[in-house]
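OP here, attaching both records as promised.
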Amino acid sequence: EKIIKRGLDKYPWAMMARADCMTERMMEALSEAGLYAVKYGVESISPTLLDACSKGTNLEKFHEAIRFTAKAGVKMHLTFTFGLPGETEETINETMDFAIKTAPESAQFSLCTPFPGTVFYDECRSNKWLLTDDDWSRFLGSGGEAVVNTPWLSSFALRDGLAAALKRWHEFQEQRMNARKASLLADITDRVQAGQHWRLYGESDFASFIPRDGHNEIKADFAVIVSRHDEEKIYRRMLRDFGNRFDSENILRLYAQKYP
């Protein structure tokens, strides 16, 4: 309410939150106040693994939050970690199935890495699961090297599991981007064939997949936004500064294209 009262809702902003602590009413209010993206820490969708790290996630509320966050049109960044006690190749695949099915705008995959002073480190050391307990250059988490070797999953299998997950995610991202490009191109083509002109906002090199037919910066009936990272900022600025020229119906955006 304060954000809206101060007129700051016209600026896009993002936040980090626990999905199972979010309510639909909260999400609707945050979205109305300018929230366009949220980061949720998933870690794993296996109840056993979540119990192992004492996160206490309510998976029923978590799945519900994912649903109404997507319904509100808020982009999601989900973080996952592989290698919690009890992790297996099967649980890694289950987590990846969830990631692909949920289709967040972006995702982060890392290896659960124990640091001194944590319960996980003490557990790994007492059970002799650590490959090293003094070479800290290997405790990276995102570098592709696993320093934990558990009875359920070897360090090599964990490393390969991360590599396979990243490959699968990148393939999904590429497929989704190609579908979005095709959808945007079809929308532009339909309007151009109807006699309309358009203007590009964003990055011309990133928009090289779009032919320049109908492109006219001076006489434009609609706008096209193609930007790797700033699409939402450009969109909000256009509505704020050029609302009398381009309304939301006449602004086409790459990342706003629905993925089937």
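Record two, same layout:
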Amino acid sequence: ADERRLFYTAATRAKSVLRISHTSADPDSGRVASRFLKPLLDSYGTSPSVINPNSEGQQKAFSASALVAQLRRIAIDTSQSHALREAATSQLIKLAQLKDKNGRLIAPAAHPAAWWGIAPFTENSRPIVALDEPVYVRGSSFADLLNCPLNWFMKQQAAADVGGSVAANFGSVVHALAAGVVDGEIANNEVEIAAKLDEHWAALRYSAAWESKVQKTEAIRSIRNFLIWRESRLPELSKTQKAEYSESFFDSDIEFPMPDGNVEKIKLRGSIDILQVQADGQIFIADIKTSTSIASKKDAETNPQLGVYQKAVQLGLINLAEVDVAQSLQSAGAALLFVRDKTKSAGPSVRIQSPLAEAETDWMDQNFAVAIEVVRKEIHTPIVSKSCTYCPVKSSCPTQAEGKSVI
């Protein structure tokens, strides 16, 4: 943001003509073009003029560290001539031995021992998760484990997650109001819901009064969308026993057969937002989402969080004392309720997940096998995806600009 403001300020100082230039890009020395040049040129439909471009092997190094980086790059570049690579290696050997008057190395980075990616991966003598402990799988974080093991490790194992944001608190309020309606603690009318919202809204601490007002309206609309969906589900529900539960908690260890024949233990844990008992005795699951981005129908079919919840139902891990069922329950499927969706006139956007297969192996079993391998082998590698934009641990990720310091 600071860089953008400086760029804007500099550009607005021009009175008749604006000329923008930069030196040849050289990432290793920090001499790179501003990220704001391309969109500026694109908006005017022009191309930059290139003056005296340097070839890859002739870029000038303006500091000792830039020189070392340039020599290192050439030394390992198989596309360069053998003679040039040998010359670069010879110079690196000399630089690695240079010392100042106090006996300190002048260019320690010239020695291969300091090069990242050269040394083998280190292994902790004691595993992060003891071999006799089950692999912990929580519904709300299971997608992190599968989509980006580094994100999962930093948040779940290294306790590097940031504190609760205003957006997260918004979601907590909406979830609490929905649970209150389902449990009968809040009357199913907007007047009482709005009154209950007023009791807790000030605790969210929005930075501006107008933002607080807008978000409060959004919260009421989100609850209204949830109630519209709930009303549409009533004909499907059981009439002879309690049909709805909120925040259904489960926490149990299960045995899972791995593809190699070994049996692993998994601790399945989670809390299901809405659990409904249908007239046919099957269990339908719904998870309330207050994010503004909506999952595709394809992604919802293999949503790991809903998959964990369906597994918990299938395995009879949820204690529904008022429901007369066998030890193993049958899932009727699950749904993601995007209650903040503005694309429809009424109700949330609903993304359905089909019931898990009755066969021994389904896509969730494959997910469990992958998760166990990641945890046991400690494969905490980053995976670039669209979720990187709002990742809370960017500063520790080597694939992101904010995390460059770690490499």
